[in-house]
Write a structure and sequence with these properties.
Elements: H1 30-48, E1 60-65, H2 70-82, E2 86-91, H3 103-110, E3 116-120, H4 124-132, E4 138-142, H5 148-162, E5 179-183, H6 188-200, E6 203-207, H7 216-219, E7 227-229, H8 233-237, E8 242-245, H9 257-263, H10 271-276, E9 282-285, H11 297-300, H12 307-327
Helix pairs in contact: 1-12, 2-12, 3-4, 5-12
């Protein structure tokens, strides 16, 4: 006679939303982003006014890091604790992920013990394989190809500074017709900005050195109405509502550092580029930043820079994201 498990459901509990993953920005619709952005503003207001928001009591987040990060770890870990949940922190040094055990098996085991998983890794295929074998939602904390949580934070920050309506609430419709200038590498950030523009109705001006262009097949953008490519970064910044960049050498590409410094010399965001943008344009950088390389100190430390709000807002949008993946829409 076989044993019958007691008190352990073999399927998702009734009433729970279906398992969804957040592996790239294009995983959600414009309507879902409208909800998430406004929910993040609500959650942030509670945080700032010292009001508890414990919607994820008894829920556990597993964080798996193949790429180290200060902001990703602190924002997810602090955010989960603030929502009443708990956190398990794993690296490839203290787990079997990427070593002897196949990713598929790791996913099957870990997802039976926690409620949600965040992974920061190299190839997008790794996180896709993990998600395909996970019983719980998986969030992309960064891959070589995409960085959706960062762009979600950047859009939230832009709306917070420029897109609040007369009642002080964020108005996602404000994004329609706006222009973001991307200056630098055609990397995971650039790929994700293009996806966001395609979904939310704004335009991205992209300027990269030759040989470092955005790979449209990776970004998955088939229509060109949401972006325009410029050889001259100054032209890309002309009339922009937001100017943004990233380090010239992302994690995993350190061997190319000297070659990249030479190639990107004319793609340093400086005061002249900001003057070419609209007078009220904002500057963003996902950090860490190298002053004097991809951005001049007078820009990142100047009055148009919102990098510190941008960094903090990772925590607030990720709280809204985790809540949505686990509980669906509230209210």
């Amino acid at each position: 006679m076989s044993a019958v498990p007691i008190g352990i459901p073999s399927t998702v509990p009734q009433g729970a939303p279906p398992v969804r993953h957040y592996l790239q920005f294009s995983d959600f619709s414009a309507d879902e982003y409208s909800y998430l952005l406004q929910r993040a503003a609500f959650i942030k207001h509670k945080f700032k006014t010292f009001v508890r928001h414990h919607t994820l009591v008894d829920r556990t987040l597993a964080m798996i890091f193949e790429k180290a990060s200060t902001r990703t770890r602190v924002s997810f870990e602090a955010g989960m604790y603030q929502m009443g949940g708990s956190v398990v922190h794993l690296t490839t040094g203290d787990s079997q992920l990427g070593r002897a055990e196949p990713i598929d098996d790791s996913a099957k085991v870990i997802s039976r013990m926690v409620d949600i998983v965040m992974i920061r890794t190299f190839e997008q295929t790794k996180i896709e394989r993990f998600a395909a074998n996970s019983r719980v939602p998986v969030i992309n904390g960064l891959t070589n190809e995409f960085h959706p949580c960062q762009i979600l934070s950047d859009i939230f920050t832009f709306l917070e500074h420029r897109g609040a309506n007369s009642e002080g609430k964020l108005d996602p419709a404000f994004l329609q017709g706006k222009t973001v200038a991307w200056v630098g590498d055609g990397n995971n950030m650039a790929n994700t900005w293009l996806q966001a523009a395609d979904i939310l109705g704004f335009k991205v001006h992209v300027s990269t050195p030759g040989g470092y262009e955005v790979d449209q097949s990776v970004a998955g953008i088939r229509a060109s109405h949401s972006y325009q490519v410029f050889a001259d970064p100054m032209q890309a910044c002309a009339g922009a509502d937001l100017v943004t960049t990233d380090v010239w050498t992302s994690m995993g590409f350190e061997a190319e550092n000297e070659a990249r410094k030479a190639a990107f010399a004319d793609w340093c965001v400086d005061a002249a580029m900001m003057r070419a943008a609209k007078p009220d344009a904002l500057f963003m950088h996902c950090l860490p930043a190298h002053r004097g390389e991809e951005v001049q100190a007078e820009v990142i430390d100047g009055p148009q820079s919102v990098v510190w709000d941008e960094a903090e807002n990772r925590m607030h949008v990720q709280k809204a994201l985790m809540e949505y993946l686990l509980l669906g829409r509230i209210g």
